[in-house]
């Protein structure tokens, strides 16, 4: 015999599941963003075009991380709670441009 949770408990459990999945996604995927920026730095000045390509790729990567996270959390893409996270991710990309170039 299975026990069903009340609707409020079920919804609370789903919120917790979404948050855990979002945290796992962000922590895992942010390594890819930092990896692209770090790889651009590691290439050295003699491969400037490859550095620029990696830095340009980091911007869509940051936007994908943001978009998937917003979808997982079921939040609106543009709001006062979610937009600062996009700004933070893009600031990593800008810092990468300043650091490498």
TrEMBL record:
Domain of life: Bacteria
Record keywords: Membrane, Transmembrane, Transmembrane helix
Annotated TM spans: 20-40, 52-73, 85-100
Protein name (Swiss-Prot/TrEMBL): Uncharacterized protein
Organism: Aeromicrobium choanae
């Amino acid at each position: 015999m299975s026990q069903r949770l009340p609707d409020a408990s079920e919804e609370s459990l789903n919120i917790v599941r979404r948050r855990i999945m979002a945290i796992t996604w962000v922590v895992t995927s942010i390594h890819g963003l930092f990896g692209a920026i770090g790889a651009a730095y590691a290439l050295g000045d003699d491969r400037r075009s490859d550095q620029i390509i990696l830095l340009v790729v980091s911007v869509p990567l940051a936007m994908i991380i943001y978009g998937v996270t917003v979808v997982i959390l079921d939040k609106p893409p543009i709001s006062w709670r979610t937009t600062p996270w996009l700004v933070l991710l893009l600031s990593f990309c800008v810092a990468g441009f300043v650091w490498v170039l």
